[in-house]
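anyone seen this seq b4? input:
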Amino acid sequence: MKKVLLSLIVVFSMSSCASIFTPAKQTITFSGMEGTKIYDNGRKIATIDESGEATARIRKKLSSKELIAKKEGYKSTPFLLEARFNPISCINLLNVIAWGIDLGTQKACKWDNTYIEIEMEQK
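predicted toks r here
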């Protein structure tokens, strides 16, 4: 019984709440003109279809991320995906190791704006 209890204590003290309860990626929805392509560091992550929307699962980061919307005949439009603190991390309380795991896996933050309307300007 002591071994089981000790094992449970070790498991819970070495785990981190945000890493356990939240996924590494978060779904972001983009709204705009059909054919608009969304890029992250030069890599296309989504294309807005005839419904006027597109979704992409983007890996969480501790800092904000700049994405770019492109469409032929329009100016490239940069916009910011803002990171904010993930309150589920507070369950760690005073466990420094768990905070380190959440920071290392970048799950201590989440994307603030999950629905982004993109307005583009013609060239």
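The radius of gyration is 19 Å. The beta strands are 25-31, 37-40, 43-47, 53-59, 65-70, 77-81, 83-85, 109-111, 115-117. kinda curious what u guys think
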